[in-house]
Amino acid sequence: MERVSQKMTGLQLNLGPLKEPLGFIKVLEWIFSIFAFATCGGYSGHTSIKVSCSDTKNETLEAAFGYPFRLNTVMFKDLESKKCNGTWTPTHLMGDFSSSAQFFVTFAVFVFLYCMAALVLYVGYLHLYRGTGKLPMIDFVITMVVTLLWLISTSAWAKALTDIKIVTGPGIISEIQFCLTQKNSCQFGAVSSVGSLNVSVVIGFLNLILWAGNAWFVYKETHLHSPPDAPAPGGAPAPAGM
């Protein structure tokens, strides 16, 4: 009995599941989770304006921003105190989008870790995974929860990204007190491309599709799809030692 128990619980390397939808899609989920937190968490950029007054012409002031996008803590570079009669005051960007950004990135990291654990289970302990009814059911429940959280986190991050584009774009001029003074003039300079952030949103929704699709294949492993065979009516139970 001890030998049978050790055989059932020991590592049995089998790459076969990676050729099946259950394992192949999990590899894709693992890869796409990396792209999700890398494209968002690794971003840094800047926005700029050009100010002019009686003694200054097109002075460029920049503000650098990046993950986790606490823009209300980011300041434009100060104008020299001698210029514009000292009317320039320290100016911040507007908005704090850290909650949505950090939720998206942190969740993607947890998904990355879970995918690695699931792949180890599929490849090394498939006999245990399919030999008990609990592990597939746990996997299915987690898959459904992760699918829902991809929808929530990506939607929240997409909304935050839209607001980030607004507060770092040309509309920022109307929010700067210095620029509202008639004697001063301001022009929007430039803002860094947010292409990688757009990609992170697309990848987030792709992850949603992957996990929703994979839910079916995980469901097929549970007893809900394939309940244990009931003994035939009147049949004698199998001996305990078999």
Key features of this structure:
disordered C terminus; 242 residues; mainly alpha; 3-stranded antiparallel sheet; rod-shaped; 3 strands
Q: If you had to describe this structure to a student in words, what would you say it looks like?
A:
The chain is mainly alpha-helical and 242 residues long. It has helices at residues 2-9, 21-41, 98-124, 126-129, 134-167, 195-219, and strands at residues 44-53, 56-66, 185-191. The chain has a 3-stranded antiparallel β-sheet with strand order 2-1-3, with no helix packed on it. Strand 1 and strand 2 (56-66) form a beta hairpin. Helix 2 runs antiparallel to helix 6 (195-219). The protein is rod-shaped and about 80 Å long. The chain starts with a helix and ends in a 23-residue tail after the last helix.
Cross-sheet strand order for the largest sheet: 2-1-3
3D shape: rod-shaped
- Helix/strand/pairing class, anyone? mainly alpha
Number of strands: 3
What proportion of the residues is helical, as a percent range? Answer: 40-55%
Q: Please state the oligomeric state of the protein chains shown.
A: single chain
Q: Mind describing the biggest β-sheet?
A: 3 strands, antiparallel
Number of helices: 6
What fraction of the residues are assigned to beta strands by DSSP?
5-15%
In N-to-C order, the SSE pattern is HHEEHHHEH
Give start-end ranges of low-pLDDT stretches: 1-8, 234-242
Task: Look at the structure and give the mean pLDDT.
Answer: 85
User: Radius of gyration, Cα only, in angstroms?
Assistant: 28 Å
**Distance between the terminal alpha carbons, to the nearest Å?**
12 Å
